[in-house]
Amino acid sequence: MIVSLQASADGDLSFTVQRPPAYGELTDVLPGLYWVRLPVPLRLNHVNCWLLDDGPGWTLVDCGMNTDDIFEIWDKLWRGLLRSRPLQNLTLTHAHIDHIGFAGYLVKEMKCAVRLPFAEWLNGWMMWHERDEGLTEQFADYMRRNGASADEAAAIMGAQRPSKYLGLKPPREFSRIKDGDRVSMGKREWRVITAGGHSPEHASFFCETDKILIAGDQVLSHITPSVIVPSAQPDANPMKEYLDSLARFEELPADTLVLPSHGLPFHGLHTRLAQLREHHQARLEDMASLVTGPTSAFAVAQEVFPRVLLENPRQAFGESLAHLNMLASMGKLTRTVDDKGAITFAPL
């Protein structure tokens, strides 16, 4: 899932269309490759899925959430334009709910095979098991150790409201894909590129013959993917993982057609990668400038994301900590942990 706390794109990209298709419309991209745009009832209002014609059947890359609107879209397509051939394979870029939420239904009804990276399969099951818990006492302790007072942590915990989990139980059986694997989709061969930062083992797919990248959330045209430190791994450095991944995509041809999970298909991969790197470098510098003395991740989050911190503490707090952990790893800040586990950042 994406929460676009920062947007960054300009007119240097060449988009294949000027405006997106209607939700549920089957849109030609290239021979044997189709775009289906689905509505998402979140701040980011859509997700792009990709249908590939395998001949006797179809491969679908990502499938959207478990909502009535998405059910009606897929039901109409499978009963209409796609009725003559079955869905044979569901391929998932990662386990965020807007990408995997409807997978359980498709697998049950279509009897299709599923493939995704192992860490993403585990992440999908973790989110399923946590669906009714919301924020737990462990998260409150995570905030307190990172500078929140007991009252501040309690206020944030008390402000949270139950939300409907818009996903079904993930598939129990799947085929694991790993970095460097070759998979066949739509009568083309694709190389799997896995990367961290946005999710544990996000998969993108590159067709070398036709220079097409199904990018998932790793490279987006208009916004930056969320990069957060999860409460389960408070010393993780997902920002480094994400920035390291950009170098791997820079090895792809400059004229690659990029098919992102959000936004419009575009040419200008290297330009967009440079924009993303520049954006995060500027954000790191901004974060560093806020640390003029010993401080905490919670204090930084209060200054940078005062409203979002109350509405979506995982995002606001986790993103602040992602930048601070990265700055500490770069030697720009010190990170100290006292004998009670409290974490403090300070300038050198």
**Helix-strand sequence:** EEEEEHEHHEHHHEEEEEHEEHHHHEE
Average pLDDT, rounded to a whole number, is 93
CATH third-tier fold name of the largest domain: Metallo-beta-lactamase, Chain A
Structural class: alpha+beta
C-alpha end-to-end distance: 35 Å
Strand arrangement, major sheet: 1-14-13-12-11-10-9
Task: Count the domains.
Answer: 2
| Rg over CA atoms | 21 Å
Strand content: 15-25%
Instruction: Please work out how many helical segments DSSP would assign.
Output: 11
Helix content: 25-40%
CATH superfamily caption of the largest domain: Ribonuclease Z/Hydroxyacylglutathione hydrolase-like
Shape: globular
The main sheet comes to:
7 strands, mixed
